User: Fold this.
Amino acid sequence: MKKPKRATAAKAKKGRKTSRRRTKVVPKRAAAPRRASRTGAAKTIGKTKTIGKTASKDTSKATIRSLRAKLSQALRRVAELEAAADTDFLLDIPNRRGFERELQRAIAYMKRYRASGALIVLDVDRLKPINDSFGHAAGDEVLKTIATTLTRQIRASDVVGRLGGDEFALLLWNLSETDAKAKAAIFEQAIDDLSFTFRGQHVTAGASAGVAQLGPQSDAVRALEEADAAMYVRKAHRRHEPRIRLVSS
Assistant:
């Protein structure tokens, strides 16, 4: 019965060796912390990406705000340049370009709403002799005073502009032909009554006005030509008046 005991002892030794081998396999579980560290790294990368996206969005929004501000500034500048292009730099009233634009708008309104009005072209009679005698600074003062006088004589809805040189134009709303001619006479008288003093001498100018009626069938170009022609007829009637009157002070 000794041999079976030895076999049992051998099996016991094998069992101990097997248990020792199984015990040595435990280090495989150490991989778990490594996986945890990879997850933490992934979270860190994710947070970095999120922060990067947020920073990118903030930068884009700032760029958009900057571009909008520049666009708004550019549009304001364009509006200023357009206004300057339509305004007489000396008299601060619409120049020919600006007045013709207002006239076209007015006629378009009249065509749509069956309104009416009048166009008056007014020419300063004796500006050239004043320029020749006293210089262009004196002529500029005369033009400025005339522009102020005309502006005071019209309503807020009316328009006064400078067509060029010594020629003005007025766009008046809701006037019959009779009323328009009466208004033209008032403008002439107001300018005739103006008096200027240059180099100790009193000087008067004068003006001749022509009228054209405006209505739904009007055309801007033809209306200006008609009023201009009427103005030259009126100027011919005033030629008997002295070119310039100088009175020593």
